[in-house]
Every structure is written in structure tokens, then in C-alpha cells.
Amino acid sequence: MAPWVRLLGPWLVWGLHFGLVYAIGSVFVLEGASEGLASRATVVLASLLCLALLGGLLVWSVRDRSRLEGAHLWIADVGIAGAILAGLAVVWQSFPALFV
Q1: What percentage of the chain carries pLDDT values higher than 90?
Q2: Is the CB of residue 78 less than 8 Å from the CB of residue 6?
Q3: Taking the domains of the chain in order of start, what are their residue ranges?
Q4: CA distance 95 to 58
């Protein structure tokens, strides 16, 4: 189970963030407050939560990398790359909600 969490975990967290930001934008647009402080604070909170999850996955893969070998080392490397790229995607998705 751990290899699948390393490989797919970052992308599931990014998908969760994407869904949360989309839902937050949709709910606050219905109430006419999409540019208010509440929607921005909610997006920041969701982003920080997802970045914390990605940081945990990144630390887990980096710590175990030294004792792994073969295919499991490759899985850890892909997990590290996935966590970094998903983190960049989370930050990128947060910009419009914060600055527009």
C-alpha cells in the first residue's frame, strides 16, 4: 500500500485542493462575496492544509530514500518529484483567489 501512497498521494492532495478551491469559489459566488475576506481566508486555509499534507509526503519519501533500493528507490524518487510538482500546482492555483 505504501508505494501507491507515495506515487498517487501528491496528486490526490492536489486534486483535493483543486476541488476545494473550485467549491469555495462556487459557494461564495452564489452569495456574492467571492472577492471578500472570507473566501480568500478559506482558500488560504485549504492551501496551507494541502501544502502541509504534501510536506508530510515529501518528508516521508526523503527519509526512507536512504534505506531503499531497486524499484522502491525509484518509487520514492517519483514520490519526491510528485510532492514538489503538486506543491507548485497548489501554490499556482492559490494565486488568482488571493490577488484578483
Answers
A1: 51
A2: yes
A3: 55-100
A4: 22
